[in-house]
Write a sequence for this structure.
């Protein structure tokens, strides 16, 4: 069964940092681009960024509002992707999902999500 | 960025109805458009990809159509389990999502 499981969410103060993990199973993780998406009641679903596979040099891209603050990485030996979030702001409060995307085809698997709350 | 706008934001319908949700894009793009269903507390579930291809395991009462800047999701013979929120997503240039359409019981 194709599965993604996020972890690492929690409450953090503005300006703080948090690192989310996305553990994959049931498919060839190293071949798959991984995208992060967040969802809040204020902004709905918002793409955060993505990391491509090794064949594409693990290239990353981010939405403008997180560029320079968030970093996506992956460890193919552990079948895990990461989202390092620094300089967090209250508007980053959301449920964060990692997703598997079949290049140019579809996004067919989402994790269960992990809640990040940025508040003092 | 390609923006996508969904309408309506809320739709009231009855079991057995046929409902249509529209997604309009700010510019023309290739048919990298998907539709998702989301229920409270759950992750979005893929229904349709590449504008009109039904995801495996999704009932055939769901269908997608459109091209260019206008796309539609149709649910024929609405079932009780279909009351949920639906989102469109373009994945031609990075990703953007519509604001969602809540399908509620009339």
């Amino acid at each position: 069964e194709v599965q993604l499981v996020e972890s690492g969410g929690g409450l953090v103060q503005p300006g703080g940092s948090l690192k989310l993990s996305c553990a994959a199973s049931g498919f060839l993780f190293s071949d798959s681009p991984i995208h992060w998406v967040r969802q809040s009641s204020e902004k709905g679903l918002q793409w955060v960024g993505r990391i491509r596979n090794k064949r594409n040099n693990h290239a990353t891209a981010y939405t403008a509002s997180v560029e320079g603050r968030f970093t996506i990485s992956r460890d193919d030996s552990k079948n895990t992707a990461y989202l390092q979030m620094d300089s967090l702001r209250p508007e980053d409060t959301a449920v964060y999902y990692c997703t598997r995307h079949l290049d140019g085809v579809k996004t067919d698997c989402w994790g269960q999500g992990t809640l990040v709350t940025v508040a003092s | 960025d390609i923006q996508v706008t969904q309408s309506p934001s809320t739709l009231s319908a009855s079991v057995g109805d046929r409902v249509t949700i529209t997604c309009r894009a700010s510019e023309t793009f290739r048919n990298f458009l998907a539709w998702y269903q989301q229920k409270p507390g759950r992750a979005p579930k893929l229904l349709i990809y590449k504008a009109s291809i039904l995801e495996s395991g999704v009932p055939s009462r769901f269908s997608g159509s459109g091209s260019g800047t206008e796309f539609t999701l149709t649910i024929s013979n609405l079932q009780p389990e279909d009351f949920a929120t639906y989102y469109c997503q373009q994945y031609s240039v990075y990703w953007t999502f519509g604001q969602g359409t809540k399908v509620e019981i009339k």
